[in-house]
Amino acid sequence: MGVCTTAYSITPKMMKKVRADNENLAYVFDYFEDEDSIFGAGEDKGKLWEIESHDFDKGIETYIHIFREVGFTKTARNIDSEYADLDAFDYGGYDTWAIPPSGVKAMCKELANATFEVLKAKEFPDVTDRRGSPLLESELESYLSDIESIKKFFDKASEQGNYLIFAEA
Predict the structure, then answer these.
(1) Which of 109, 113, 137, 145 falls between 20 and 30 A from 87, CA-CA?
(2) Percent of the chain with pLDDT over 70
């Protein structure tokens, strides 16, 4: 058993609604009962609910270890629930935290030069899987290649001036 983690990119307008009522996280997490409860009648709900997400599944701890090993401390800290304010949101048993647009921008700046080739050239003696076992070379390469998609997700959120909401279940 492990913890599944997903990051959601949401607009400042949506974040305001989530902060006003934590139950609005249901809309972020794809559980919709009545969209009119969060938006007024006549608002363009389609545009407002174009939420992109990145599923870290159970591997977020490994990404945190990799980011720390290469000196991406802001990114590692931001995506690590150990450093998050988990009391900011209370919703359905999820551990949930947010990263403001300025934090997203800082992570993007930190990850700007992180390519598969650059990362593969580094040594990762202490990186383990979620169970604490050392990663095989093929497993490490898989994680390193996924960093490109993480960067793209963060970059797009930053370009749009969005917040990131992380949810662990």
Answers:
(1) 109
(2) 87
